[in-house]
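Tokens in:
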């Protein structure tokens, strides 16, 4: 799983990084966005709905920050 370190980045930067990473992933691959911006919780899920990707859910990174997992569908 690829992990994007978006700590310290505010909206819309985590979503921009997610969009940039997606073309490098194979269909079915997972990417995780670690972000301390509270807006990322809603933004990642909304981006997935708009872009036809699967929002797998939220986990916790080793440092306790939220980690949002996305599966590339196409």
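Residues out:
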């Amino acid at each position: 799983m690829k992990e994007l370190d978006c700590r310290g980045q505010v909206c819309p930067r985590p979503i921009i990084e997610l969009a940039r990473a997606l073309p490098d992933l194979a269909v079915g691959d997972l990417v995780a966005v670690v972000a301390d911006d509270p807006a990322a919780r809603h933004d990642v899920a909304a981006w997935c709905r708009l872009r036809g990707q699967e929002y797998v859910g939220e986990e916790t990174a080793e440092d306790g920050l939220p980690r949002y997992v996305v599966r590339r569908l196409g």
